[in-house]
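not sure who needs this but someone in the group chat was asking about SDR family NAD(P)-dependent oxidoreductase from Bhargavaea changchunensis so here u go. i didnt clean anything up, its just raw.
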Amino acid sequence: MNQTMGVFPSLKDKVAVVTGAGSGIGRATAELLASNGASLFLMSRDEEKLSETQRICEGYGVDCTYRSTDVTDAEAIRQSFAECLEHFGRVDILCNVAGGSTGRKSVFEMTESDFDAVYELNLKNVFLCCKEVLPGMKERGGGSIVNVSSLIGRAAGDNTNVAYSSLKAGIDQFSRYLSRELGDFGIRVNSVSPGYIEASQRITDLWNQTQDMDRVFNRLSIKRPGTAMEVANAIVFLAAEESSYITGEVLDINGGAIMA
């Protein structure tokens, strides 16, 4: 599988925040940014995993720090960005990767608190993180935000729930609308929509519990799951100035599962 790491010269000396950076797509995104010379502030719940991502990123000779952050907690988000700004003084790039599903659950089983939990983890945190970086980006006249949604936001599936699917769709529309609001300030906003990505063993196990994955991959144009680095390449391309005329885009990374 493809582990090629893209080269984006415009990222050198930029300051990037990556949420969900402890593993999977978030870790791959942080590593790719670091390999291109960006300084990094990392967020995730798991401090041990964040420390390992920091070690990987610092291996590229960049300044990388982190704060263990529950992105469903608005105050924790505020504190993390305050620490980031104290350390770096600005944020040029925000990659909102954090998210997750509560698993397969029918609408009959889902409670209001279940729905709220998925909302806070997948869409509300994106809004809150954007709110933290936008004043500085506006003042400096530029910035780039990349949000991560999901194929399941456009296609019904068997391994998640109505809340996760609808909120991932919401991320795409949030990105489109925000890009229109912020264009006058030189701020670009885009979204990346991954399909079947082998980002963690937990996700792979969940697929196998609910679907015949050989049949799923056989329906794709590229008949295999994607890798975290393949998604990271798309995220970082949209974050970098190499994509300076792209905003409001939803980029599918799904091996041909959906073509539109």
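also Residues 71 and 125 are 6 Å apart (CA to CA). if thats useful
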